[in-house]
Write a structure and sequence with these properties.
Length: 269
Amino acid sequence: MKHKIVFFDMDGTLYQTENDIVQPSSIEAIDELRKRGYMVCAATGRPLNQMDSILKHIQFDYYILINGSYILDGAFEEVDSRPISKQTVKDIVEFCSQNELGLMFHFGDATYIYNKFYPMYDFCKYCNVLNSLFYDPSQSYHKRHRAYNAVILTKEKKEIDDFMAAHPDLRADLINVKSDGFMFDVFNSGNDKSVGIELMMKHVNFTWKDTIAFGDSTNDIHMLQKADIGVAMGSATEYVKSFANFSTTSVYDNGIYNGIKKILDDHEE
């Protein structure tokens, strides 16, 4: 067995977000990986409290969460983390309040809406992530807990651009979902899934040569590029696919099963 560990993005890769489905063929393929001795890990922008729909079907050996900023083992114990600094979180809260922007934070154990409750609620409903969703009109939860990610909704993209220019320690990724305006994931500029994977691999003495990764979006690019075998889903853009070793079919057409079968048939003899 050449490789030891496989990382899976969730939305658009392992999980059909719109209809809340993990295909049986994906579960079958992951079971086969485990039988052959592979570790199976999640690598997602989601926090743990928004993984319930997926965990009903699959348990993972490690969880690379919130775009690499929160890493847990299979028992949900923290392995490593990189929260946003308290001052920067305070700046985000003030910025969104002053400009009347939608704001939601992902903490280690919960997600809290601060501003624009109903637009943010509708976004979470679309993504099937209403579990552990709370509203904090006092906007104070961050004072007692570490925030790993902010989700900001704005009608004017320039507002975000100006704020990010003044905060080079942050990164903003546009979320491609239906929403009333522009929705951005905001997190530490030094964080991404590949960084979280590297933090996790230190604990098991693995390197990128040991890895296989599946993804479909721009936040998967670095892990697809660094993995020994990077697999892009069929629905990924040509740009994302250019960083992968090969493309499989889409999440709606047994993409995980087909990709794993190809790897096991072609690379793992």
